[in-house]
Structures are given as structure tokens and as C-alpha cells.
Specification:
Helices cover 40% and strands 21% of the residues. By secondary structure, the chain is of the alpha/beta class. This is GTPase HflX.
């Protein structure tokens, strides 16, 4: 990749600006989590008081000297800012501090570069890195900014900087074309799922809310899950059987974060479209996080940016094992529809409530009925068991199977019609 990414094991001086404007404020604890996730060792942490931002160095001269002393004392390799820096500010700071300077966007891009595993994920990260780097390209080429004249010094018509910019533009166009091909493949897969009438349920939420842990326990998979930011980058889809409903496709997606760089949202649009095209969003929330409401608001902003804010949504409040006295339960709206589910994915608490709530929201009308099947209905019996909707089985006085089922009414009627049966003739009781 073009982006010069630092390796793990380096020492960094962390600089956190205290912004008076609530809209621009960043969380210092989240900043430290980002640094930890990048594999960099924290050598020092400085807080910069809010106020006027220096157009030259972002910080004042006094604070700049303080940062320089910390860099010298700790022998730090890099200075990380918990704020976006302009290309000129980054260059000026590097010139004064004599070490690399990386802003919040660059730090997030670095973590993404470490986490991407699939070919598509790597392409998306590289695209975001190249577009971010294009404005900072002058760094490292300052000695070639002007083409010299004179005998023996005339070049081919463009400086090294211009050549590099041209190569960047060509690479960006190439990646865009390849991602367009990925997008068309995803659209084709999405159309195939629609034809098969298999609904898509997409997990969304703030980073480190427990999406991958929930995905693993629901799908019995082993997707990488860790207590760190952006543990999951590449989308993962699994077909599972949901209790009371049947087959659904469950998608695990990249976590959101406040002030997620716009270039990343654009680069990962193909991935995020798995959420935008979902039949239902499961918004996983860290119920124990003191910044819970702020995180919810940030997810809402990203969902609006990818045109997914009007999709049906179920809020899944995770990690209740960290909240004494809170038991798994479902909160319903004034119409009786599930609105929030309180669970602990780590401890497998309340997972059956997720199944029931998803089934209700996808199907609308869940019926609890008893079907009396003849001896020649073995295929229907097998299909009902395969869908996971059979609650119990007994036999009537004639020795015929009597199945207790719980499933969407529309699905039941469709299934019986496919078998050439009249639904009303087979229903004995209904709760």
C-alpha cells in the first residue's frame, strides 16, 4: 500500500484537545482504546485546553514545546493527535518535533489496515488511505517540489511530485473499478436472496459493542471477536435458523465510531450496503458504556449517511452481565411490538428473546398451533423440523403425529399450500 503505516511496538505521545464545542468533542478514553488497538505503546498523555486553534501548529507555541520535551524524554517514535489535522499542520508539526505526526483519521486508517483480511477489505482500506494521502503527498517530496532548469537538469516535463500524484490517481481509479465489480457481485447475491425469500438481518452498532460475539453465538461461528476497537472489518454472512421463523441471513458488519472519517464511509459503502439493504437491523448497544447515548446518536448519523435510517430496527442492549440487577427481557412499544432486547451475548443470556423478537418483527403475526399430520405427510414433518419451528410432538388416538408448532402465519399458510393442504383443516387448536 502507498500509505506508510507504522508497525506495532512503537512508543507514542498522545495529544488530546479539549474542545468546548460539544459537536467536535472527542472521548479521551476512546482515544486510548484506539491507540491500544493499533498496537502502539502510550509513552505520555497530554491534554490541550480548548480555545483558538493555531492554523500553523494546531497547538500554541508553549504546548508545542511541551510536546517536544515529552518526545525527547520518552524517545517517542510518533505523536498522535485525537483530532483531525490539516496537511500543513501535520507537516509543520513534524518539522518542529522531528518525528512522525498522525491525526485521528490516520490512526483509524492504520487500524483498518491491520485488521483487513479479505481482498475486498484490503481494497477498501487502500482506497481510503490513498484518498487521505493525496492531500499529504508533498511530505517526503519537498526536495523535488520545483523542477530545476539548466543543462543536464531538465526533466521529462513533470516533477516527481506530479508523477506521484498521477500514479495515485491511476491507482485510485483502478481500485474504484474493482470495487464496482465487487458491488455488482453483491447486488447479484442480494437479488438471489430476495428471489429465495430469505430475509437479511444485519448487525450494526458502535465499535466494541459486542456485535461479533452475538454473531458467533447466534450462528455458532468463530468470527474474530476481541475487546478492542474495530475487531471486525470484513462483512461476514451466515444462513441460520431462527426459532419461530425459519431461515434468515445474518450479517456482521464493521463497527461505527464518532466522527468516522468520511473517506472511510465512502470507501466502505459497498460493505455498509449490506446494512442498507437489510430487512431488519439489529442495533447492538453496549448497555454498560457511560457514553451509551452518544454512541447511539453516532450510529444513527452513519445509518442516515448510508440511507438505512428508516429500516425496521431492533435495539439489542448487550453486556447486561456488567449491570447488577438487570435480567434479560424485552421492551415493547405501544403497539406491543419488540423495541429493545436486553441480553448478554458473552454469557448466553437472553438469546432466545432475540430469536422471538426477530421472528415477530420479520413475520408480524406469529401463531402457536397444533397440526395433525397423516402418515403420508412425512415430507411436511421433515420441513417443519428443518425450520426449527416444532415445539413438541405427540400422537393422537389414531397414532398419527400431532405437532406443536410456533411460526409466522404467512409462512405456515405458504408451506401448507405448497403441500396441497388446506390450512384450516389441519389446525386443531390455537393460542
Amino acid at each position: 500500500m502507498f500509505f506508510e503505516r507504522h508497525e506495532g511496538g512503537e512508543k507514542a505521545v498522545l495529544v488530546h484537545p479539549e474542545c468546548y464545542n460539544e459537536q467536535d468533542r472527542e472521548d479521551p478514553s476512546e482515544f486510548r482504546e484506539l491507540v491500544r488497538s493499533s498496537g502502539v505503546e502510550e509513552a505520555a498523555f497530554l491534554t490541550v485546553p480548548g480555545g483558538n486553534i493555531s492554523p500553523r501548529y494546531f497547538v500554541g507555541i508553549g504546548k508545542l514545546e511541551e510536546i517536544r520535551q515529552y518526545v525527547i524524554a520518552t524517545e517517542a517514535d510518533v505523536v498522535l493527535f485525537n483530532h483531525a489535522l490539516s496537511p500543513s499542520q501535520e507537516r509543520n508539526l513534524e518539522r518542529e518535533l522531528k518525528c512522525r505526526v498522525v491525526d485521528r483519521t490516520g490512526l483509524i486508517l492504520d487500524i483498518f489496515a491491520q485488521r483487513a483480511r479479505t481482498h475486498e477489505g484490503k481494497l477498501q482500506v487502500e482506497l481510503a488511505q490513498l484518498e487521505y494521502m493525496s492531500t499529504r503527498l508533498v511530505r517526503g517530496w519537498t526536495h523535488l517540489e520545483r523542477q530545476k532548469g539548466g543543462i543536464g537538469l531538465r526533466g521529462p516535463g513533470e516533477t516527481q511530485l506530479e508523477t506521484d500524484r498521477r500514479l495515485l490517481r491511476a491507482r485510485i481509479k483502478s481500485i474504484h473499478r474493482r470495487l464496482e465489480k465487487v458491488k455488482s457481485q453483491r447486488d447479484q447475491s442480494r437479488r438471489s436472496r430476495k428471489r429465495a425469500e430469505i430475509p437479511l438481518v444485519s448487525l450494526v452498532g458502535y465499535t466494541n459493542a459486542g456485535k461479533s460475539t452475538l454473531f458467533n453465538v447466534l450462528t455458532e461461528s468463530d468470527v474474530y471477536a476481541a475487546d478492542q476497537l474495530f475487531a471486525t472489518l470484513d462483512p461476514t454472512l451466515r444462513k441460520i435458523q431462527m426459532t419461530d421463523f425459519g431461515s434468515v441471513i445474518l450479517a456482521d458488519t464493521v463497527g461505527f465510531i464518532r466522527h468516522l472519517p468520511h473517506k472511510l464511509v465512502q470507501a466502505f459503502r459497498a460493505t455498509l450496503e449490506e446494512s442498507a439493504g437489510a430487512d431488519l437491523l439489529l442495533h447492538v448497544i453496549d448497555s454498560h458504556d457511560p457514553e451509551r447515548q452518544e454512541n447511539i446518536d453516532q450510529v444513527a448519523l452513519v445509518l442516515e449517511e448510508i440511507d438505512a435510517h428508516e429500516l425496521p430496527r431492533l435495539d439489542v442492549y448487550n453486556k447486561i452481565d456488567l449491570m447488577p440487577g438487570v435480567e434479560p427481557h424485552i421492551d415493547r412499544d405501544e403497539h406491543g411490538r419488540p423495541r429493545r432486547v436486553w441480553i448478554s451475548a458473552m454469557n448466553n443470556q437472553g438469546l432466545e428473546l432475540v430469536h422471538h423478537a426477530v421472528a415477530e418483527l420479520l413475520a408480524g403475526d406469529i401463531v402457536h398451533e397444533y397440526l395433525s399430520l397423516g402418515f403420508n405427510n412425512g415430507r411436511l414433518r421433515a420441513r417443519l423440523y428443518a425450520m426449527g419451528v416444532v415445539q413438541s410432538e405427540a400422537y393422537d388416538d389414531n397414532g398419527q403425529p400431532l405437532l406443536e408448532i410456533r411460526m409466522p402465519r404467512d409462512e405456515l399458510v405458504r408451506l401448507l399450500n405448497q403441500e396441497g393442504m388446506d390450512a384450516s383443516a389441519y389446525v386443531l387448536e390455537q393460542d
